[in-house]
Amino acid sequence: MKCLVTGVAGFIGSHLAERLLQEGYEVIGLDCFTDFYPRWIKKRNLTFLESKPHFQLVENDLNQINFNEILDGVGFIFHLAAQAGVRTSWGENFSEYVKHNVLATQKLLEAVKGRKIEKFIFASSSSVYGLSSTFPMVENGPVQPISPYGVTKLAAEQLCFLYFKNYNVPIISLRFFTVYGPRQRPDMAFHKFFVAFLKKEIIPVYGDGHQTRDFTYIDDIIEANILALKRGRVGEVYNIGGGHRKELSEVIELMEKITGQKARIRWLDPQKGDVVHTLASIEKAKLDLGYNPRSDLENGLRQQWLWIKQLYE
Ligand SMILES: NC(=O)c1ccc[n+]([C@@H]2O[C@H](COP(=O)([O-])OP(=O)(O)OC[C@H]3O[C@@H](n4cnc5c(N)ncnc54)[C@H](O)[C@@H]3O)[C@@H](O)[C@H]2O)c1
Predict the structure, then answer these.
(1) CB of 70 closer than 6 A to ligand 1?
(2) Whose CA is nearest to atom 37 of ligand 1?
(3) Residue nearest to atom 18 of ligand 1 (CA)
(4) Which of 103, 237, 244, 258 could covalently link to 173 via disulfide, CB atoms 3.0 to 4.6 Å apart?
(5) How many domains is the chain partitioned into structurally?
(6) Does residue 12 have its Cβ closer than 6 Å to ligand 1?
(7) CATH code of the domain containing 80
(8) Which atom of ligand 1 is nearest to the CA of 12?
(9) pTM, full prediction
(10) Is 291 an annotated catalytic residue?
(11) Residue-number span of the structural domain to which 24 is assigned
């Protein structure tokens, strides 16, 4: 069976494609190498994949591609291609978010409707909740994004749902909660903090350090995608969180332990669009998918630190 992974050169897409190959699937990976972060990092993410005979890389933009090139014989679609990042989604940049997150998703869904696809798994985000009044955040609770990025992810999720309702496209949306681990994007906090440790620089931290996040290790995210492929109910949305909540200041303390260095921090004003606390209710994913996040934060951070050192040294 063939899988299509969009956004394959990215953080999560590259890990997922590797796992799918291990599971015995053939993988077509699509990516247009947006310049949000350097191409060399994305090429590095593909090192393992590009040597594998059952992997094919297609460099193209979802907004431009002739879909017959990539959809023939495909049974499962993992749609991860997106313009990620909350803080950069304001102002003029918003058009890029609309293009890559909303328009590209609609084009893919249009191309898929009427085709025999087993499952279409969409990478949604905890940022759709924003100021949600329920805590922990539950899938059927209110959604109220507070960043333009969150608005585009919610729009894409809603597009998926309406193609399911109207055209039976077998969609499943997974709302990922802050993902970390090797290959994490350079704009994300843990990546930036570890680089600052490596270069012995001051760490800029937005907020007071008491903000909390449900951090999810990359292996758990990948496992959730595989479980969704096997057991997910179409038309449903699942939270995929790490199962615990930590303060950012606790994460920095763990980083100090791992790197053996004292952090020098510059505290900055909170950024617009940043949610102060996130916590996923993962009951639905446990029940339907058998999802059970196993990763321990300290161990996951150690893996990310090893990778950061390899990448930059
Ligand atoms: N990393 C997280 O913590 C997190 C949390 C919630 C949701 N997500 C979602 O997971 C997905 C993957 O995130 P990531 O952190 O791996 O991001 P990433 O930026 O590393 O990967 C996304 C990839 O998509 C590609 N891309 C973007 N637009 C494209 C288009 N129009 N056509 C083809 N390729 C395109 C980019 O070049 C990039 O390589 C995204 O949809 C993101 O919104 C990520």
Answers:
(1) no
(2) 33
(3) 10
(4) 237
(5) 1
(6) yes
(7) 3.40.50.720
(8) 16
(9) 0.98
(10) no
(11) 2-181+215-243+278-294
Which of 41, 95, 160, 176 to probe ligand 1 with, by most ligand atoms within 8 A of CB? Answer: 176
φ and ψ at residue 278, rounded to 5 degrees: -130, 145
Q: Report whether residue 240 contacts ligand 1, using a CB cutoff of 6 Å.
A: no
Selecting among 25, 37, 129, 149, the annotated active-site residue is 149
Q: Is residue 152 part of a domain?
A: yes
Task: Return the beta strands (E) in 32-181 as ranges.
Answer: 55-59, 74-79, 119-125, 171-176, 179-180
Judged on CB neighbours under 10 Å (0-12, 13-18, 19+), 98 is: middle
Q: Is 42 in the pocket of ligand 1 (CB under 6 A)?
A: yes
Question: Per the domain annotation, does 229 fall within a domain?
Answer: yes
Whether residue 304 lies inside any domain: the answer is no
**What is the 82 CA–ligand 1 centroid distance (Å)?**
4
22 lines ligand 1 (CB under 6 A): no
| pLDDT by 10s per residue, the chain, length 313 | 999 999 999 999 999 999 999 999 999 999 999 999 999 999 999 999 999 999 999 999 999 999 998 999 999 999 999 999 999 999 999 999 999 999 999 999 999 999 999 999 999 999 999 987 788 999 999 999 999 999 999 999 999 999 999 999 999 999 999 999 999 999 999 999 999 999 999 999 999 999 999 999 999 999 999 999 999 999 999 999 998 899 999 999 999 999 999 999 999 998 888 888 999 999 999 999 999 999 999 999 999 999 999 999 8
Phi and psi for 299 in degrees, rounded to 5?
-65, -40
Domain assignment present for 171? yes
| H helix or E strand, kind and range, residue 312 | helix 297-312
Dihedral through CA 78, CA 79, CA 82, CA 84, nearest 10?
Answer: -50
